[in-house]
Specification:
Blueprint (H helix, E strand, L loop, with lengths): L13 E5 L11 E6 L4 H10 L6 E4 L5 E3 L4 E7 L7 E3 L5 E4 L4 H10 L2 E2 L11 H7 L2 E2 L2 E2 H4 E8 L5 E5 L16 E8 L2 E2 L2 H18 L19 H7 L6 E2 L2 E3 L7 E3 L5 H19 L8 E3 L8
Parallel strand pairs: 2-5, 3-5, 4-18
Antiparallel strand pairs: 1-2, 6-7, 7-13, 8-14, 9-10, 11-12, 11-13, 15-16, 16-17
The structure holds flavin-adenine dinucleotide (FAD).
Length: about 300
Amino acid sequence: MTQESLRIDHNAVRAGVLLGPLTTYKVGGEARWFAEPKDLEDLRSILEARPPGMEVVILGRGSNVVVSDDGIDGLVLRLGHGFSSADIGTDGTIVAGGGLPLPRLARFAAEAGRSGLGFFVGIPGSVGGAVKMNAGGHGSDTAAVLASVVVVDSETGELTTRSSEDLDLGYRFSNLADSEIVVQASFSSAPGDPAALLAELRDITRWRKEHQPGGTLNAGSVFKNPADRSAGEIIDSLGLKGLTVGPVRVSEIHANFMVAEPDANATDIWTFVHNIQRTVHERTGILLEPEVKFLGTFHEDRI
Ligand SMILES: Cc1cc2nc3c(=O)[nH]c(=O)nc-3n(C[C@H](O)[C@H](O)[C@H](O)COP(=O)(O)OP(=O)(O)OC[C@H]3O[C@@H](n4cnc5c(N)ncnc54)[C@H](O)[C@@H]3O)c2cc1C
């Protein structure tokens, strides 16, 4: 359904907001409607003002998405500053807002002398995005530390608490519906020495600088790893490192990172990713599944 005829009357909602700057690839068109609710009350009033049938898309730090050049024909929400808090309970549970950047969560936990969340320092997403994707690295993942989440359903406005087990978290997977917005997450942690934990964060940051194409436009690993191999190793084994088509290339540093030039658009990235997928499939029989989420409409006939 086109959302053109649907209007939303709320003073926090803006029309025609360019989404590229809100993502790490920096590509993509406009959100027909966009809002950054500052707190839960604001979020719920925006959802109430939305006309029935208007699609809602939740964007985190935009580090795992490619937004279509045609934009998103609906209401795009990004959690505002009231969702960026981090607190620690007497039992060591860390309660974080859904919009909190993961590196800040890692630093907060380390400075408080709580271990287990250090791996988040290298992942440039938000708490909500990490739960949705079960983000992980350095031998851990969100599932290993998540206790529970508070979600708002954008269709019903209902606020519920869901346990980590209930989310069925698997490799880069959760069963969160696209309508469920993570507004808060609680993490378990163990005691640790702040100085050692901060040193761990520095080690992880250094490792990332050495093994990933920092300072480039990308969205991290493009494909999920198949059962027993790494997607990057498979792409590398076919000699595709450095392959360049127009403004997109396979990183020379990490073959599962597809790096874009500033003049790339979303269609360039979409086409490149699907060509890599097709090449790998033809030459190995392995069908790599994208980890990156393509938001909005992509047109095959533009290849
Ligand atoms: C340089 C680089 C390195 C990376 N390294 C890693 C890594 O080591 N491990 C890893 O797992 N990932 C990695 N990523 C990918 C990415 O950072 C993670 O997937 C991250 O969890 C995405 O969070 P986000 O807030 O950016 O989500 P977005 O990219 O904005 O969105 C991703 C998905 O989550 C949904 N979403 C976002 N916020 C919410 C919310 N509040 N509630 C419900 N759904 C939400 C979106 O609708 C979308 O479906 C990397 C990315 C980059 C650019």
